[in-house]
Design goal:
homodimer; 168 residues; alpha+beta; 5 helices; 5 strands; 32% helix; globular
Chain lengths: 168, 168
C-alpha cells in the first residue's frame, strides 16, 4: 500500500460507536466534503438530510434491513439526488459525494458505514417516510456515523486480476 | 472549509498536463486507491483498464465527446463494472472507486478529470471498441490523468440550501 494514500486506505466500515455527540462543526465539515465531489456538468444534483434526533435515528435503524447500528449512531446522513437536476448522473454524483463523506469521517475522528438504498424501492419508501423526503427526490444512500468503538487496519483490496493494461 | 479535509477539497478537474510519464508505482497506487473503495456486500464488481499507449490515448480522445484532453494525458483509466457480479450496485461501487482515484491523484502529484460514460450507449460503444472490452462488461467512467500543467485552488461547493436537518 502506498503510504501517501493512507487517507484512502484507512476508510473502513465502522458499525460500533461510542455514545458521544458529533460536534456541529464536524457535521458541517462532512457536508463540505460531500459537496466538494465532482458532478456531471457540475450540476450538483444532491441534497443531504442530517439526522441527530434520537427517535429518528432509531426509526431509521428499523427502516433499513442492515441499519441496526443506527440505534447506536449519533449521526446519519441521507444522501439524496434530484433526477430533474441531472437525470442520467444523479446516482453517480451522489455516490462520489457519499464516498467523500466516508473518507472525511476518519480524518475527523469519526467512523462511518454506507447503507445502500437506491435502487431498492422498499428501503427508499421506509426512509422517505421517516425523513419526510418528497416523492420527486431520490434516496441514494444512508450513512451511519459516530465516534468509533472499534478499530480496523488500513487496507487496499488490490487484485492484479482486475487490472487490464492497454486493453482488456 | 475545514482544514483537516484539504485532501478532499484540493481535488479539482485537471485537463492540462505536462508531457511526462506517470511512474509505474503511481499507476499501481491509483489502482490500490480504486480497489480500496467500499462496495455493496463487498462484492468488488470492478475492473480497471489502464492506458498509457499513445495511439490508444489518442483514439480515446476521439471516442469521447469531452475527451480532447486525453491526447495530452499520459494515462487513462477506464473504470468498468461487471453487472453479473453485482447487478444493482456495480455503478455506485464504480463511482466510489472512481472518486478514490480522483482523490489519490493530487496526493501523488497528478491531476485528473472524470469523463462520464455510463449510461450513454454511444460513448460506451466507442470506448469498448478502442479497448476491446467484452460486451458483458459495463464501462462506467474514463479518468484522464497526467502531471498537471494547470493549478486550481481548493474548494468546497457547500450550499446550506442543500442541507435538511432531522427531516426534509
Amino acid at each position: 500500500m502506498d503510504k501517501r494514500l493512507d487517507f484512502i486506505f484507512r476508510r473502513r466500515s465502522i458499525r460500533q460507536y461510542q455514545p458521544k455527540v458529533v460536534p456541529k462543526e464536524d457535521v458541517k465539515a462532512l457536508l463540505e466534503a460531500g459537496m466538494a465531489a465532482p458532478s456531471a456538468s457540475n450540476l450538483q444534483p444532491w441534497h443531504f438530510v442530517t439526522v441527530t434526533d434520537r427517535a429518528k435515528l432509531n426509526s431509521l435503524a428499523a427502516a433499513h434491513p442492515y441499519g441496526k447500528m443506527l440505534a447506536q449512531a449519533s449521526l446519519a446522513i441521507a444522501v439524496c439526488g434530484d433526477p430533474k437536476a441531472s437525470e442520467r448522473y444523479w446516482d453517480q454524483d451522489g455516490s462520489a459525494a457519499t464516498e467523500n463523506i466516508l473518507l472525511a469521517a476518519p480524518a475527523l475522528g469519526l467512523g462511518a458505514v454506507w447503507l445502500g438504498c437506491h435502487p431498492r424501492d422498499e428501503r427508499k419508501a421506509a426512509i422517505r417516510k421517516v425523513l419526510e423526503i418528497p416523492q420527486n427526490i431520490e434516496i441514494l444512500s444512508l450513512i451511519s456515523l459516530g465516534v468509533p468503538a472499534e478499530t480496523k487496519p488500513s487496507r487496499t483490496q488490490y487484485s492484479p486480476d482486475r487490472v487490464h493494461e492497454d486493453g482488456w
